[in-house]
Amino acid sequence: MSLIFNIINGLLTLYIWIIIVVILFGLIAPHIKHPVLDFLYSIINPPLEFIRENMPFVVANGIDFSPLVLIIGLQLIRALF
User: Fold this and answer.
1) Given pLDDT bands bounded at 50, 70 and 90, which one contains residue 26?
2) What is the residue extent of each domain of the chain?
3) How far apart (Å, rounded) are the C-alpha atoms in residues 71 and 51?
4) What are the backbone angles phi and psi of residue 17, rounded to the nearest 5°?
5) Which of 47, 51, 78, 81 satisfies CB 3.0 to 4.6 Å to 66 for a cystine?
């Protein structure tokens, strides 16, 4: 059972780092087109869109806080394991 929890914890940690990398690339060079970045965007965009649709207050004055909400949610899930 511990192995399953470690795998889940590792996958959640990896997903959090993917979110951070995509956010940084979006801030530094928003117009880069690369297949790896396109794949990473396709991984994180569905949950971000879900957060934006169900919590419209996370986008304030043109600043999108949905990645932060997603990271906090994932951290809470990690705390359960």
Assistant:
1) confident
2) 2-80
3) 11
4) -65, -35
5) 51
